[in-house]
């Protein structure tokens, strides 16, 4: 049933400006639909305007009128939970995953064993409520092995695992069944890229399909990024992503073991080193110390920690390991908890200046 509330009536020619101003003042009733007639726009308000707000409207809007009108309630977008309410028992609904990973047009979910028999129903509900998704994958194993891969089962939609993912203006060919990729690290990709300075030589020791390397090259005119990975599938996708984002000549893909690659030609070459292999990065700190220029540089070090371990302990262990390899942590520039990865487990990052 339409609801009668105070509103602002203004000409359509000033509609966009009026909506923006009302939104900034936080006076728009978000539960109601903005109404349009042939010549006017009506913006529903949560309250009467204050004198200062009226003054702002007079300064920015040529013609407007405060009146009242009836508005329809906004239609709330259905979630996949809503679609499953009459298909699953309450205790199964409580077990549904609260978060999905969206990679390109693929949705990735983690289902408990008790939800296994209902995976197709759940997948179809996700397809219906996520219009850009064409495939739903369920995690079928834990991440394991040298390439950090897991198994997946197609539960709905197109039977595929490869897609194109967009992140911070870059496009990436991604295949989570063949090369590790996490959309939950998008903030880190952008954060690290924003710290790189023009003229730097960057080594990404565990580059994967290139979310760090490509973004760095895309956002800087004069950088050289050596992107290393031991997984041949990751390197093939990385090469496609270099071409796709037109960063040839800036990103140099290298297939091989990080230790061997640095030994064979990158000793003392890097101004900045990225170590996004949280399971084993501590085991490659000797490589990092060798790769950083003799005058020093920056290391972005990622690790997993138990919730009982403090960040101070992580920094202490990092400092000790660096000193064992003949270098010194001049300063821990930045530390943060990146994301929860399991119950009582976190991924953390340390940005350190090493000399």
Describe this structure as you would to a colleague.
- α6 (186-195) packs across α7.
- The chain is α/β, with parallel strands linked by helices and 355 residues long.
- A seven-stranded mixed beta sheet has the order 13-12-11-14-15-17-16, with helices on both faces.
- The chain is globular, with a radius of gyration of 26 Å.
- The protein has helices spanning 15-24, 51-60, 80-84, 90-93, 119-129, 186-195, 211-218, 232-244, 258-263, 285-291, 311-324; strands spanning 3-11, 35-36, 40-44, 65-71, 101-103, 106-109, 135-139, 152-157, 163-167, 170-174, 201-204, 224-229, 251-255, 272-275, 297-306, 329-342, 345-354.
- Count of DSSP strands: 17
CATH architecture of the largest domain: 3-Layer(aba) Sandwich
The tally of domains stands at 3
| Rounded average pLDDT | 94
The helicity comes to 25-40%
What fraction strand?
Answer: 25-35%
Low-confidence stretches: none
Topology:
Blueprint: E1 3-11, H1 15-24, E2 35-36, E3 40-44, H2 51-60, E4 65-71, H3 80-84, H4 90-93, E5 101-103, E6 106-109, H5 119-129, E7 135-139, E8 152-157, E9 163-167, E10 170-174, H6 186-195, E11 201-204, H7 211-218, E12 224-229, H8 232-244, E13 251-255, H9 258-263, E14 272-275, H10 285-291, E15 297-306, H11 311-324, E16 329-342, E17 345-354
Parallel strand pairs: 6-7, 11-12, 11-14, 12-13, 14-15
Antiparallel strand pairs: 1-3, 1-4, 2-3, 5-6, 7-8, 9-10, 15-17, 16-17
Helix pairs in contact: 6-7
């Amino acid at each position: 049933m339409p609801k009668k509330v105070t509103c602002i009536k203004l000409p359509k020619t000033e509609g966009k400006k009026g909506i923006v101003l009302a939104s900034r003042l936080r006076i728009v009733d978000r539960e109601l639909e903005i109404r349009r007639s042939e010549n006017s726009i009506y913006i529903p308000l949560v309250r009467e305007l204050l004198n200062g707000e009226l003054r702002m409207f007079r300064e920015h809007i040529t013609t407007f009128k405060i009146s009242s009108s009836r508005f329809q309630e906004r239609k709330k977008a259905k979630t996949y939970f809503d679609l499953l309410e009459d298909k699953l028992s309450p205790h199964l609904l409580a077990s549904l995953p609260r978060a999905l990973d969206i990679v390109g047009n693929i949705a990735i979910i983690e289902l408990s064993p008790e939800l296994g028999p209902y995976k197709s129903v759940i997948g179809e509900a996700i397809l219906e409520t996520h219009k850009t998704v064409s495939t739903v994958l369920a995690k079928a194993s834990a991440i394991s092995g040298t390439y950090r891969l897991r198994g997946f089962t197609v539960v709905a939609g197109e039977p595929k695992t490869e897609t194109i993912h967009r992140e911070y203006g870059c496009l990436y060919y991604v295949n989570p069944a063949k090369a590790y990729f996490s959309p939950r690290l998008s903030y880190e990709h952008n954060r690290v890229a924003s710290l790189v300075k023009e003229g730097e030589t960057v080594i990404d020791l565990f580059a994967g399909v290139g979310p760090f390397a490509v973004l760095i090259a895309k956002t800087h005119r004069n950088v050289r990024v050596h992107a290393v990975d031991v997984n041949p599938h990751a390197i093939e996708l990385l090469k496609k992503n270099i071409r796709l984002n037109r960063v040839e000549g800036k990103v140099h893909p290298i297939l091989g073991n990080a230790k061997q690659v640095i030994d064979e030609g990158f000793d003392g070459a890097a101004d900045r080193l990225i170590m996004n292999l949280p399971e084993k990065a501590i085991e490659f700190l000797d490589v990092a110390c060798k790769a950083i220029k003799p005058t020093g540089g920056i290391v972005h070090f990622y690790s997993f920690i138990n919730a009982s371990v403090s960040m101070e302990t992580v920094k202490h262990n990092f400092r000790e390991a660096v000193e064992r390899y003949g270098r010194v942590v001049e300063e821990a520039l930045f530390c943060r908890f990146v994301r929860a990865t399991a119950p009582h487990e976190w991924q953390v990052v340390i940005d350190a200046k090493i000399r």
